[in-house]
Design a protein that fits this description.
This protein is an alpha/beta fold. It has helices at about 1-10, 15-20, 25-40, 55-80, 95-100, 100-110, 125-135, 175-180, 195-205, 220-225, 235-240, and strands at about 45, 50, 85-95, 115-120, 140, 155-165, 185, 215, 230-235, 245-250, 255-260. Strands 6, 7, 8, 9, 10 and 11 form a six-stranded mixed β-sheet that branches. A three-stranded parallel β-sheet has the order 4-3-5. A two-stranded antiparallel ribbon has the order 1-2. Helix 1 (about 1-10) packs across helix 2, helix 1 (about 1-10) crosses helix 4 (about 55-80) and helix 2 packs across helix 3.
Length: about 260
């Protein structure tokens, strides 16, 4: 059932295998066994991935409810045992998962060595909130203000920075928006939460931002800046560690995100 639900969510046997920490052959065997036991075809396989059949959709919905019930039972047992054993599932967007959580988990493990911690990294904080609502995460890191159905508190404030190529080391500061516009702009894709914050900020100021490149990975953005391909705008945590040869300055109009 876990294999079936994972394939339905992620679209391919290989992606589902990664999510539930099994080999692709094990996932294929699990689905084949389930189809044989039920006597129906659950998935149509093709070059574009795996698509649920109509009966597969119905059974997947039931399987999701069963797995949720199993998870609830496990959590009830964990609550009864206290903090001596069990699992904490953390959902966080990329820069938090990379730069903040490792130190936190080290401290947590020292205090509660019997608890297992799992981290799931997603590109947008909306996915964190969705996972919390659906019972797929226990703790999430998001942007504040958070929706009213969560218990949330401020963790830190993260300012946005302009990263310029090494050749711009001698550029006169502070920068204006016109100065930034002289360079090709390298930003994340439109569905990235960091990019959306920059777009909203520029729109409120009436400043047009037209990226020359759209790149999802922060490390790739920074590498492109180092190669002199343009400038980028990133939250400080996402940009760290910032190479010494890259010029760094504040935005002409400051912007920060509140992480909770």
């Amino acid at each position: 059932m876990r294999a079936l639900v994972a394939i339905a969510e992620f679209g391919t046997f290989s992606d589902a295998a990664l999510q539930i920490d099994l080999s692709q052959s094990a996932v294929s065997h699990a689905i084949a066994t389930l189809e044989e036991e039920l006597g129906v075809v659950l998935l149509n396989r093709g070059r574009q991935g795996a698509v649920l059949t109509p009966v597969g959709q119905q059974i997947t919905q039931e399987a999701q409810q069963i797995l949720q019930s199993v998870e609830t039972i496990c959590h009830q047992a964990q609550d009864a045992r206290g903090l001596q054993s069990g699992q904490v599932r953390i959902k966080g967007f990329r820069s938090v998962a990379t730069h903040i959580l490792p130190k936190v988990i080290e401290q947590f493990h020292d205090r509660y060595p019997g608890l297992q911690v799992t981290i799931d990294e997603v590109p947008h904080f909306n996915q964190v909130e969705e996972a919390l609502r659906n019972g797929k995460a226990d703790v999430g890191f998001t942007h504040l203000p958070a929706p009213p159905d969560f218990d949330a508190w401020e963790l830190l404030r993260d300012r946005y920075l302009v990263l310029l190529p090494p050749a711009a080391k001698d550029i006169q500061l502070p920068l204006s928006w016109q100065d930034i516009a002289r360079f090709p702009l390298i930003l994340g894709p439109p569905d990235d939460c960091g990019r959306q914050a920059v777009d909203d900020h520029a729109r409120q100021l009436g400043v047009p931002l037209t990226p020359a490149y759209e790149v999802r990975e922060d490390s790739t953005l920074i590498s492109m800046v180092r190669q002199g391909l343009g400038v980028t705008i990133l939250p400080q945590i996402a940009a760290e560690p910032i190479p010494e040869d890259i010029a760094v300055t504040e935005l002409p109009t400051p912007l920060e995100r509140v992480i909770g």
